[in-house]
Amino acid sequence: MFYIIRIKILGQGDQARGKSFELLIVSLLNNLCYTDFKVNIRPAGTELDIEATHKTENTKLLCECKAHKEAIGPKDVKLFYSDLIYEIGKKYAENGKNLIVLIPKGVS
pTM of the entire structure? Predict the structure, then answer.
């Protein structure tokens, strides 16, 4: 089941908006029983924004947060997803880690 929530990320410039969005997601994940947050990690040469561990299930979660002003197209999502799976998907899937893509402006 999928839910769509539209939010507006405030900040002056791309970096400020990106940081604000990452902090929002860390807060959300904390409320969903995740802990041990690592921010801006770079496994296998790929930058990921958040890694966390579930408090009771001991599973890892990986997030890439995108706070773009405009909606991104399906081509961008497919490219990001294929890069993510190619670079880290197998490694993290074998270790019981989850992958999440968060895009506040949606996909057009």
Answer: 0.68
